[in-house]
Structures are given as structure tokens and as C-alpha cells.
Amino acid sequence: MSSFGSGYNQNENVKHFLEVERFSVSPQTVFTSELTERLYTWWSAHQPALPKRSEFDILDHRKLVPYLYLYRFNEPNVIEYRLNGEAIVAAIGRSQAGNVFSAADEDPEMAALANYLMDVAEARQAHCCRGTLAFVDKKHVCFESIDCPLLGDDGNVSHVVGLLVPEFAKGGRRSAL
């Protein structure tokens, strides 16, 4: 069974996961969510350097907490889903916290996610995703998310912090804070 959703059709869910629009973020990016923009503003304030994981204090981002998630690279190709906020749990259908996965994962959705996160880490640049939650059987729910790499003490990307903002109607309105 998939890590996401209850109505699991592996081929369809992977197809939907792969249909999500993904792109590198720049200062010219126009976000559909004020929350996504807020996390990017914090992250980009550290440029041209990347912020360290130790510089990200969740208490400084209280309004974002329900939408936040954090991944940790345990090994170069092994990723642990460290935390996810309540809005993500509600949107996805269950908590992913504690799940460990890799590009070689038997679950193709998790393998695709691992490959994407490794690309984010290698690019050392924030990435935005937009699409629907069709991969968890919620085609009616649009979302915007952002993934921001964070450095460990050794100067390598050790974490990716991000947030996912579900919009419960197609059409792209700005999220209320």
C-alpha cells in the first residue's frame, strides 16, 4: 500500500505525482499563497549563502506551523520525513513523520519524492510545486508548496524545509493568514 492516501492505484497515483508542476524559485516568482511566499522570503534573506538548519527556529514561524514539513538526509540517498503540520496530515490523509525512504524505495511515489528532494539539495535552490492532490485521490484540492534546502554544520545540505498549502477549490486564490 502507498504511503499516501487510502484509495491506492499505484500507476495512477505515480502518474498524478509526476504531473505536479515543479520549478526553481527566483525573486521574480509570483506565489499563489502568502504562506509559501513568507517561507521563501525568510529563506532568500540568507542569500547568496544557504541558511543552516540551526538557523531555522520553528517558533519564528508560528503561523506556518500547520503547513510545515521537514526532511532530513540521513545518508546521501536516504531521507527521513522528520515532521509535518496538521494541515498536511489533513490534506494527505495521515502523518508521514518518521518515514524513511530513498530513490530505491519499493514504493514508486516515495522513490519519485526522494529523487525530487535530491535534485533540490543538489541545486541548492528553493523549488516550488503546484498541482492537485490527485496522488492522494483528492483531484479537487489544488496546492502550492515550496522546498528550501538547509545546510548542516559541515556545509552540505542536510535538510529540506518546506510547506504545503492546500486550496480546497481549483482557481488559485491567495491563502488567508
Which features would summarize this protein structure in a list?
single chain, 177 residues, alpha+beta, Beta-Lactamase, seven-stranded antiparallel β-sheet, 4 helices, disordered N terminus, disordered C terminus
Could you describe the 3D structure shown?
The chain is an alpha+beta fold. It has four helices and seven strands. It has a seven-stranded antiparallel sheet with strand order 1-5-6-7-2-3-4, sandwiched between helices. Residues about 1-15 and about 170-175 have low confidence and may be disordered.
Question: How are the secondary structure elements laid out?
Answer:
Layout (H helix, E strand, L loop, with lengths): L9 H9 L2 E4 L9 H11 L23 E8 L2 E7 L1 H7 L7 E3 L5 H16 L3 E7 L4 E14 L5 E11 L10
Number of helices: 4
CATH class descriptor: Alpha Beta
Mean pLDDT: 84
Structural class: alpha+beta
Q: What best-fitting shape do the alpha-carbon axes yield?
A: globular
Indicate the CATH topology. Answer: Beta-Lactamase
* Helix amount: 10-25%
How much strand content do the residues show? 25-35%
Strand order of the largest sheet: 1-5-6-7-2-3-4
Radius of gyration: 15 Å
Total domains, how many? Answer: 1
Order of SSEs, N→C? HEHEEHEHEEE
Assembly state: single chain
Largest sheet, if any? Answer: 7 strands, antiparallel
User: Using DSSP, what is the number of strands?
Assistant: 7
How far the N terminus sits from the C terminus, by CA atoms, comes to 35 Å
CATH architecture name: 2-Layer Sandwich
Q: Which stretches are low in confidence, meaning pLDDT under 50 for 5 or more residues running?
A: 1-17, 169-177
